Amino acid sequence: MTKKTYHIVLLPGDGIGPDVTHEAVQMLDAMASAGNFSLTYEEQAVGGAALDQHNHPFPDSVQERCLASDAVLLGAVGGPKWDHHTGAMRPESGLLKLRKALGAFANLRPVAVPDSLAEASPLREEAVRGTDLLVVRELTGGIYFGEPRGREPDDSGEKAYNTMVYTTGEVDRVARVAFDWARKRRGEICSVDKANVLVVSQLWRDVVTGLHQAEFSDLQLSHMYVDNAAMQLVLNPRQFDVFVTGNLFGDILSDAAATLGGSLGLLPSASLGGKVGLFEPVHGSAPDLAGKDIANPIAAILSAAMMLDFLGEARSAQAIRDGVNSALASGARTADLCRDKHRRVSTREMGQEILRHAQQALGLI
After folding, report:
1. Which residue among the candidates 4, 41, 132, 144 is catalytic per the annotation?
2. Which of 207, 258, 281, 333 could potentially form a cystine with 337 if both were Cys, beta carbons 3.0 to 4.6 Å apart?
3. Residue 220 and residue 188: Cα distance in Å, rounded?
4. What are the φ/ψ torsions at residue 93 (nearest 5 degrees)?
5. Are 101 and 118 found together in one domain?
6. Which domain holds residue 148?
7. What radius of gyration do the chain's Cα atoms show?
8. Active site residue: 227, 275, 288, 293, which one?
């Protein structure tokens, strides 16, 4: 069998980005050695690091390299050092430009709370234990990008406005992503909108319903207003399999869901839509932790697992997830999750712990 080779662009970025990306790469190398594939890497700068090197948060030269790759693995961007930059020169704008360049219209955030993490949740253990849901958020439309937008004088002083806009095509393509993922999971999808108030949500609901009836009737579809969805996410998150929703609602719900496991250091994400996928941890750059070997690498490592799924290396991806779950079950914890009964480990020690368990899952040791 021919050995596949994948070219990965690494964008470690700022703060703890390089620390956690290093652990993800160590994991990827081990999985490639054990599997029938190989990985080549090319490191580029993004965000604040790119501002320092190129005076731009996402230079055209970096964009070209990303588009020529098989996948992009990003660490984190931003930090107080670059807070004086505004508009298109902010580090975070580099990430938005990257997503646009890759045609990444769907953001996927899986949230799982195994038994070993239930006690770390801000919710009751019995309410959150066993949660396993996926938020599919539309990423390039809606009120964040709609026109017109602006601020202008008003009789009372000033008025500001944004426009929530979605087209049939935009809703259809992200709904297809969600339905496809629901088929790989438990077959249940909840579309979240505000159709009782917003005309744009009425279109959203009509398109999702029509697509379900035409092509995905084997799946179970429900609709929920966003305010109720937020309440249900707190009351009983285990009831959900796949959420699909627009940019604004998805931003809020996915951030709320990210807290269920007790730390943002646990949550990976994928931004998909074009030929090249973008994979990144949900957490920020946490510059106060950078270089101290104390950051939680799990979100970056799980983002690498999502990348392997995207590339078609499902067995290796599952081994990584099994490794994470087993390492947590063994009591290993970085500082963000550690309690008295746990074994506190460093960033690199956690990476090695997960690697050992992943190799066990593959029967290598």
Report:
1. 144
2. 333
3. 5
4. -65, -25
5. no
6. 114-243
7. 21
8. 227
